[in-house]
Amino acid sequence: MQQTILMLVLATMVYAVSLGLKLTDFRYVAKHPRAVLVGLVAQFALLPVATWAVTLWLDLPPAVEAAMMLVAACPGGALSNVITHFGRGNLALSLSISAVSNVLALLLTPLNFAWMVAANPDTAAWARTISVDPKDLVLSLFALLALPLAAALLTNRFAPKIAARIGKPLENVALVALFVFIIGAVAGQWKTFVSELGQTLPVVMAHNALGLGCGYLLSLLARLSVPDRRAVVIEGGMQNSGLALGIIGLQFSGDLAMVAVAGLWGIWHIVSGGALALAWRRMDR
């Protein structure tokens, strides 16, 4: 019952956020393929490889490393568009990367997560003990991403006034419901969560910095303009941790260590992204 509710909450969130997407977001790709490609490579190639390498080097519990891999395999988060706009980055590019990454995630998220887990001896052994089934992960992504995204695009196409009216209220309700779920998952094992917080938060902060750094490095090498570079940096460092939480709840029985990583990611990337955007605004002055 709890898993069904969580799936409905996250599907509603994806639907509400996707109501802001339009076909023009996808058309932008045809006009500016290079910048979009740089953002997608930073998100779906550079960050997963870097995450896998870091987990080989760090001596962390397998569940924590697996959660890092899962977050790294997820597409960008919806708040990345808001932060990009606030930081005077290229909003159209950010929207296009978000739109395309959510479609590609249906294939690349399970693919990236599977190879990262299998290529790390610790997480590979851990995955065998809990019998992770890649097919279930694909089905979860289809239910959490593909169906809500398709429904939102259809609503935008045939009922734009309704889409404009219900988008924000639905998103707020889903965010509150997700927050309640996180609190409920943590409350049952509060002492354990607090004891692990001091170890998990620095890992999340460093991992988020890695994502931002991957976006910056690749956009710098590609010689993108400053607004484009800002969009790529934010897209690289603001992952859809809500989707990761949903997968953890559905496929990993709400493992506390994994919930802690994904939940803290959802909080910290807003702080780091907002701080970057604020710094960029000051630089522009």
Helix content: over 70%
Q: What's the count of strands?
A: 0
Spans where pLDDT lies below 50 across 5 or more residues = none
Overall domain count: 1
- Strand residue percentage: under 5%
How far apart are the termini? 52 Å
Radius of gyration in whole Å, from Cα?
Answer: 18 Å
Verbal overview:
With 285 residues, the chain is mainly alpha-helical. It has a single domain, classed as Na+/H+ antiporter like fold (Up-down Bundle). It is 87% helix and 0% strand. It contains 13 helices and no strands. α1 runs antiparallel to α12, α5 packs parallel to α13 and α12 packs antiparallel against α13. It is globular and about 45 Å long. It starts with a helix and ends with a helix. The relative contact order is 0.20. The mean pLDDT is 86.
Features of the shown structure:
single chain; 285 residues; mainly alpha; Na+/H+ antiporter like fold; globular
Helix and strand topology:
Elements lengths: L1 H17 L4 H9 L1 H25 L4 H12 L5 H8 L4 H29 L1 H10 L3 H25 L1 H28 L2 H32 L4 H12 L3 H11 L4 H29 L1
Helix pairs in contact: 1-8, 1-9, 1-12, 2-3, 2-6, 3-4, 3-6, 3-10, 3-11, 4-6, 4-13, 5-6, 5-11, 5-13, 6-7, 6-8, 6-11, 8-9, 8-12, 10-11, 10-13, 12-13
